[in-house]
């Protein structure tokens, strides 16, 4: 069971009205909303493929924007942690190295996921009509679904522990919630794209 009193003490360190914290929350929530709206608009209209001259060029452009937004999000996350107090009991070697290990595992999942999917597979290429031949089942997809999202969440969790930051832990929870909502929308939509592909193949 969750120790409510411990949670209350933990988040008593967090000023949720701090401007930096609010900006971090908004940047976390904005990113998946942005790429889902843009990618679905592209899937429906093909407007970006026409503007950039090809689906691949449009996908690479969206990927670059997503990477830039992720850098902004990480910066806002770090600045929000710096502006809020640390948890004294966690400002020690064991917490730091635990956080480092968790971040390393998260980085492994993110990098291996990218290598398995490729650039277009990672950055919503299927919404641009750039479909993969088969579902990827190799590591890290053999270990868990959506390893890119969970790996990214683990990196933020580890980063928060390394900084002994209650604000970072709360922001990590916001990251996890944002990704969970994104997965609820992306999963069925992507499956439908591939169902339509298979239907088109069968009708030929």
Automatic annotation (TrEMBL):
Pathway: Lipid metabolism; Phospholipid metabolism; phosphatidylcholine biosynthesis. Keywords: Endoplasmic reticulum, Lipid biosynthesis, Lipid metabolism, Membrane, Methyltransferase, Mitochondrion, Phospholipid biosynthesis, Phospholipid metabolism, S-adenosyl-L-methionine, Transferase, Transmembrane, Transmembrane helix. This is Phosphatidylethanolamine N-methyltransferase. GO terms for cellular component: endoplasmic reticulum membrane. GO terms for biological process: methylation; phosphatidylcholine biosynthetic process. Its EC number is 2.1.1.17, 2.1.1.71. It catalyses: 1-hexadecanoyl-2-(4Z,7Z,10Z,13Z,16Z,19Z-docosahexaenoyl)-sn-glycero-3-phosphoethanolamine + S-adenosyl-L-methionine = 1-hexadecanoyl-2-(4Z,7Z,10Z,13Z,16Z,19Z-docosahexaenoyl)-sn-glycero-3-phospho-N-methylethanolamine + S-adenosyl-L-homocysteine + H(+); 1,2-di-(9Z,12Z,15Z-octadecatrienoyl)-sn-glycero-3-phospho-N-methylethanolamine + S-adenosyl-L-methionine = 1,2-di-(9Z,12Z,15Z-octadecatrienoyl)-sn-glycero-3-phospho-N,N-dimethylethanolamine + S-adenosyl-L-homocysteine + H(+); 1,2-di-(9Z-octadecenoyl)-sn-glycero-3-phospho-N,N-dimethylethanolamine + S-adenosyl-L-methionine = 1,2-di-(9Z-octadecenoyl)-sn-glycero-3-phosphocholine + S-adenosyl-L-homocysteine + H(+); 1,2-di-(9Z,12Z-octadecadienoyl)-sn-glycero-3-phospho-N,N-dimethylethanolamine + S-adenosyl-L-methionine = 1,2-di-(9Z,12Z-octadecadienoyl)-sn-glycero-3-phosphocholine + S-adenosyl-L-homocysteine + H(+). The keyword Transport does not apply. The chain crosses the membrane at residues 20-39, 51-75, 95-117, 164-185. It is an enzyme of class 2 (transferase). It is found in: Endoplasmic reticulum membrane. One of its GO terms (molecular function) is phosphatidyl-N-methylethanolamine N-methyltransferase activity. It comes from Piprites chloris. PANTHER family: PHOSPHATIDYLETHANOLAMINE N-METHYLTRANSFERASE. The lineage of its organism: Eukaryota, Metazoa, Chordata, Craniata, Vertebrata. It is a multi-pass membrane protein. HAMAP family: PLMT (MF_03216).
């Amino acid at each position: 069971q969750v120790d409510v009193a411990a949670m209350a003490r933990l988040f008593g360190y967090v000023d949720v009205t701090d401007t930096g914290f609010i900006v971090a929350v908004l940047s976390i929530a904005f990113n998946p909303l942005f790429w889902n709206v843009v990618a679905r608009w592209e899937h429906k209209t093909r407007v970006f493929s026409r503007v950039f001259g090809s689906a691949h060029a449009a996908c690479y452009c969206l990927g670059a924007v997503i990477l830039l937004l992720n850098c902004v999000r990480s910066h806002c996350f770090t600045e929000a942690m710096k502006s809020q107090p640390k948890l004294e009991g966690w400002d020690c070697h064991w917490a730091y190295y635990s956080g480092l290990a968790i971040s390393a595992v998260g980085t492994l999942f993110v990098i291996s996921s990218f290598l398995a999917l490729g650039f277009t597979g990672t950055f919503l290429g299927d919404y641009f009509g750039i479909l993969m031949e088969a579902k990827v089942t190799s590591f890290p997809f053999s270990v868990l679904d959506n390893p890119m999202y969970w790996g990214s969440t683990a990196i933020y969790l580890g980063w928060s522990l390394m900084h002994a930051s209650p604000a970072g832990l709360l922001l990590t929870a916001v990251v996890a919630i944002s990704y969970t909502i994104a997965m609820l929308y992306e999963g069925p939509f992507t499956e439908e794209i591939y169902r339509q592909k298979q239907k088109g193949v069968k009708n030929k």
